[in-house]
Design a protein that fits this description.
The chain is of the alpha+beta class. The protein has one domain. It is about 35% helix and about 15% strand. It is built from four helices and four strands, in the order E-H-E-E-H-H-H-E. The chain has a two-stranded antiparallel ribbon. The longest helix has 16 residues.
Length: about 120
């Protein structure tokens, strides 16, 4: 078993709540799972920063018109962009632990901002 400690902020919880779980046809033989997260469209949209900024309420801080750019939405505030990229990377890195927390806390009032300890069934490295 491996012990993990993760910190969740209110903004992270908003982004986590927008993760889209998709159904997979188990009978197609493509996979051995029935539902999962599409790694290319984690939050359901086509642009990572657009999805995250909408979830945390800072979409209005984009450079107007950049939503039509083929490279995706752009923000003047590079610190804000970096915060969103870092948040996404942290969520993806800890997705199994977050999923475990969601299941555990679902009947205990839900998750709130804070630091959580989790255990995964894998060998410690």
């Amino acid at each position: 078993m491996k012990k993990n400690r993760i910190k969740l902020t209110n903004d992270m919880l908003k982004v986590i709540s927008s993760i889209k779980v998709r159904e997979n046809d188990y009978n197609e033989g493509i996979s051995h799972y029935i539902a999962g997260i599409d790694a290319n469209s984690v939050y359901g949209g086509s642009d990572l920063l657009e999805d995250i900024s909408m979830a945390i309420g800072c979409y209005d801080k984009r450079i107007v018109g950049s939503e039509d750019d083929s490279h995706g939405i752009i923000f003047e505030d590079t610190d804000l962009e970096n915060k969103m990229y870092d948040m996404h990377e942290y969520i993806m890195k800890n997705l199994i632990n977050i999923e475990n927390l969601l299941h555990y806390w679902s009947n205990k009032g839900g998750l709130t901002e804070g630091v959580y300890n989790t255990i995964t069934l894998q060998k410690e490295e």
